[in-house]
Model the fold of this input.
Amino acid sequence: MAIAGTALALAASGCLSRPSANPNVIVGSLTSGPNNLDPRIGTDDASQKIHDLIYDNLVELDEHLQVKPRLAERIDHPDPLTYIARLRHGVHFHDGRELTAADVVYTYQCMLDPAFTSAKKGGYRELAAVEATDRYTVTFRLRTPFESFPVNMNVLPIVPDGAGPGLREHPMGTGPYRFVRYDVDDKVELSAFEGYYGGRPKNDGVVLRIIPDEVMRGLELRKGTIDLFVNDVSPDIVQQLRNEPDLQTIEAPGVDYQYIGVNLQDAALRDVRVRQALAYAIDRDAIVKHLRRGLAAPSIGMLPPMSWAFAADAFSFPYDPDRAKTLLDEAGYRDPDGEGAQSRLTLSLKVSNSEFNRLQSSVLQQDFKKIGVQLDVRTYEFATLYADVLSGAFQLYTLQWTAGSLADPDILRRVFHSNQAPPAGFNRGRFKDAEVDALLDRATTSTNAQERLDLFREVQRRVALDVPYISLWYKTNVAVARSSLSGVHLTPIADLHFMKDVSRVAWSH
Done:
């Protein structure tokens, strides 16, 4: 195996070393350094992974993406405009001070402060006021009914009352780990918090090494200079590491959703028969088996199967090239020369310039070619691609919605309601359906759980048939770890909070 030879060469040169001599410190990895350790501001992946370890939220999400209490013992909802959080007693910050309602109020008031800049503020537009009723009770008052508000309580970790800009570089929360240091572009070091309300972590601390190159991450794991990583390598590298005797692989269903976005203002793609034809043309099972190495599942829509609002009966497009050809015939795109070289039509697909996207785009080209559609693949740096997507400068594009966005079915409104075109929301393909709008409007304001469930499921059924997105796959979360570790478990959103449960069964140099 190629990766083994490279690892041996690096080991011989002395390039690999373990950052902690303590075997009970767990060493993980990050693909990049954190941008901001203040959880009110930092939204990049590296920062949020560290927030998972240093801070706590009022609530968390269970395996069905339903809200359950965390720092709050319970959340009451006495009327459509009011939520009341009853806090745990005896929760302490890392400096020993007890968490109270004042800390929660301060944290959320930052989201209401016009002078405070944060990309997270958009999740709290419906919040009118937050106040402390007593030392352990916080009342949230909304401008309009918004039943998805509790999910946003999982987005904003609680910081100490009065915390200033220094939190950016010296974070302090109530989480299972204390911040020790950040060596820029090298590592983040954390130590176990003895006073954690959920019990002391089962290890002495965590070091997160910053290793941008995925091959190097695999090599360092194999050598033992890091102990584990979560999701941060390609399926090919996971496949190479599966049979290593000193490693274990842990898999769990994820929520990340890969899709092809469609511009419904395009002359050809505004015809639903063309969109359906493209959906029938894709062999998703082959992509999952060969490109994803089984680390995915074919998708039928944005919401993942473990979501409480998932519509299992929404239409799923099987691989059916013959049906695709018939639909193109009906739409007026007949094959000009049978099985000859001429195409029915030509479409362009914009993708980011990752290796996986390059490979997947080649497969899509071949699939579309079989039904007489020529696919012109254009690759871009992510920033350029994203700018084109936001401005509507595309016919087709490929992107991936990630866990944080898909935790609540309200994402359906942000993506498919006609008033949510950028910059207001994420309706980048300019999908417009009056009935879908009406269903989403009712789901947003309804306070009846069953009604919301029925409405969101009907939206999924309608959207599936109208194909504003061509669904590809849901990501399978995967951790690869040293066999000496126990307690590695993955949530649907693949956060790192589980690190507090990781311990080393055995240690050998």
